[in-house]
Write a structure and sequence with these properties.
The protein is of the alpha/beta class. It is built from ten helices and 25 strands. Helix content is about 30%, strand content about 25%. It is globular, with a radius of gyration of 21 Å.
Length: about 375
């Protein structure tokens, strides 16, 4: 598809709609934004649309608890229709496949084309897969969450014999520990291209390695898995281990349509935005993992912090008012689930999470996660 060619974006049978405001994706930033609009009593322009692949938004903070069997599906999901109805927004269950920013048009996988006057993108990222996969093992990307959950439900009928989690961040650690709770007899491993939790302080890394050792999870640091052949995971020419399944919890990669949209993107393909979360095209905003902004990392904590700025700035863009600037926090609290109801905590270089302190930290994490869910579920506020 050549996005500069307008005809290629609009086949003869395409259904086209014009919207004053299109919200692409129900990520954390958009959820916070919608809640704040409801709290303020503000309704977006009539004809505003929210595009999301499903009827629910999934909260990433509770995914490890779901995998560990501590939470049910309904506890980890936020119904979008009540939020949309309260705000007069139309929910379109589809995925964005292309964006032509020059002609202000979003293309969906259901054949629809939405023309927008204002667009906000909160569609996230996807994990990086090894370059060579021969189809000999099951591949389970940690994102997008609906796909992950669908595959996960199939796994629950029969535990795989050997599972490797690929990635060195918090998500990889949490998923590996959660899998141990669900599959106590399976052979589990974690492989990453650098140090485990290298974006955190060394104290948290030490605690994490201790937890993984106690859980009998093999760790392969400084081993970039770039191929899986005949059920064997390879780092270069080095065979690491035989596996039945591979979970991708690797670093975020941009959705392909970002760089094909004619919007300026960074070297990784994420949409460049200014401190107001606005792209070089004043009609397009981006937040969460989709956005490239110095000092703002790709994690749920930062995406949530984008929400209030986005809530103000989209209202301001509609009414012609001044925009607010987002300021990234220098340190962010991180709570990493240990799979058994406990958690580790880090803030800057400070860390806690021994076997003694983990249960209390786990209760704190559960409280914060469940509070987020209550704030964004209209049924819980009735």
């Amino acid at each position: 598809m050549i996005l500069s060619d307008a005809e290629s974006l609009q086949p003869p049978d395409a259904v086209t709609h014009t919207c004053p405001l299109v919200l692409a994706g129900a990520g954390h930033a958009h959820l916070v934004m919608m809640r704040l609009w409801i709290k303020a009593g503000w309704r977006p322009p009539a004809g505003t649309v929210l595009i999301n692949a499903g009827s629910h938004a999934w909260y990433s903070g509770m995914m490890p608890g779901l995998i560990a069997g501590r939470f049910g599906l309904d506890e980890c999901a936020i119904a979008l229709l009540p939020l949309c109805q309260r705000l007069g927004i139309t929910l379109v269950q589809a995925s964005v496949t292309a964006l032509d920013s020059q002609h202000q048009r979003v293309v969906l996988d259901n054949g629809e084309h939405l023309h927008y006057q204002l667009l906000s993108i909160n569609t996230g990222s996807q994990p990086v897969a090894p370059a060579q996969l021969d189809g000999s093992v099951n591949i389970l990307p940690a994102k997008p969450f609906p796909e992950f959950i669908h595959q996960w439900q199939r796994w629950q009928t029969q535990a795989p014999g050997s599972v490797m989690v690929l990635g060195g961040g918090a998500a990889a650690f949490e998923l590996a520990m959660a899998l141990r709770q669900q599959f106590p007899a399976s052979e589990l491993s974690l492989a990453c291209s650098g140090d485990l939790l290298q974006s955190h302080g060394p104290a948290l890394r030490t605690l994490a390695l201790q937890w993984l050792t106690r859980a009998d999870i093999a760790v392969f640091e400084h081993n970039r898995v770039d191929a899986v052949r005949h059920q064997q995971a390879f780092a270069g020419e080095l065979p690491l281990m035989r596996i039945d399944a591979l979970i991708l919890a690797t670093g975020a990669s941009a959705l392909p349509w970002y760089s094909r949209s004619a919007l300026p993107c960074d070297s990784q393909g994420f949409i460049n935005v200014d401190r107001c979360l606005r792209s070089s095209d004043a009609r397009v905003f981006a937040a969460g993992d989709a956005a490239s902004l110095a000092g703002s990392l790709r994690s749920g904590v930062y995406s949530v912090r984008h929400g209030p700025v986005l809530a103000h700035n989209l209202r301001a863009a509609v009414s012609g008012q001044a925009l607010l600037e987002y300021t990234a926090q220098s340190n962010a609290l991180a709570l990493l689930a240990t799979g058994n109801g406990g958690a580790m905590m880090s803030y800057g270089r400070f860390a806690l999470g021994s076997q003694r302190s983990a249960p209390l930290l786990g209760r704190w994490k559960d409280y914060l996660d469940q509070s987020f869910m209550r704030r964004h579920r209209l049924a819980d506020q009735a």
